[in-house]
Amino acid sequence: MRTAVMTDTNSGISLEEGSRYGIYVLPMPVIIDGKDYLEEVTLTHDELYKALNENKDIVSSQPSPGAMTEMWDKILSEGYDELVYIPMSSGLSGSCSTAKALSAEYDGKVVVIDNHRISVTLLDSVYDAKYLANKGKNAAEIKELLEKNAYQNDIYITLHSLKRITKTGRITAAGAAIATVLNLKPILKIQGGKLDAYARVRGMAGAEQKMLEAVHKDIAEKYAGIPKDKLSIGAAGTFEDKRAAKQWFDKVKAEFVGYKVVYRPLSCSIACHVGTNTQGVAVGMTERTLKID
């Protein structure tokens, strides 16, 4: 049984990276001032950041059913018996439910996995799926293993600006104005596909420290007894300055010596909601044994 692995760009896996490691990646759509774009195909992160700073009308969108099924058909025509598709969490987008409905027409050859992850934690799930497929696991077995540990991941994000999240209605304009005057940085937590407020800290340096402390606490309590090579630490952001991205990555690596630490830009779909110069850190369990840096 040959099982292919497919995800979308919300995983942080680029089209080039996916091609290099045998993972199929579906570009996620973004609509800017009424015009449709595809991440990495017709829209770069820098172009999106520019549009965000110009306060253009920007919304994320689901992949079209045609784009999704066209990629499934292409994969199955390449000699695979089945495929697993791991989109972003159903708690954050309707694309997972759409995929499940469409997969019903494929007689079990397309298995949609919802393990309630996004960004760097979804990235780990995708590489876990590829590892398991290479080990001979079929789609049903991969789905069972990944969904069993669906909630074994935690993400913390600090917003540099509240402008974008105010537009989504998650915070009032008055609340945003007060937070801006007081230099309060909101820290949001994503766990199991649910986005919640975690804390408010004065200044970005304080917010960084609070996020790192949160991950240390998760490791000590929620993941107590889990070997370091079964836990992945992820840094992410929507940094306009690549030097700032490296500084954050280096800080996270220095904080979690002895763990596998990766960095990926937040996807365009996420950036639409959190704006530029947002940064985050995550921890999650993996099915494979990680090689420590």
From TrEMBL:
Asked whether the UniProt record includes Magnesium among its keywords, one would answer no
Quote the PROSITE patterns the UniProt record gives.
DEGV
The record's annotation in Gene3D superfamilies points to: 3.30.1180.10, 3.40.50.10170
GO MF: lipid binding
Question: What keyword terms does UniProt attach to this protein?
Answer: Lipid-binding
Protein name from the UniProt record = EDD domain protein, DegV family
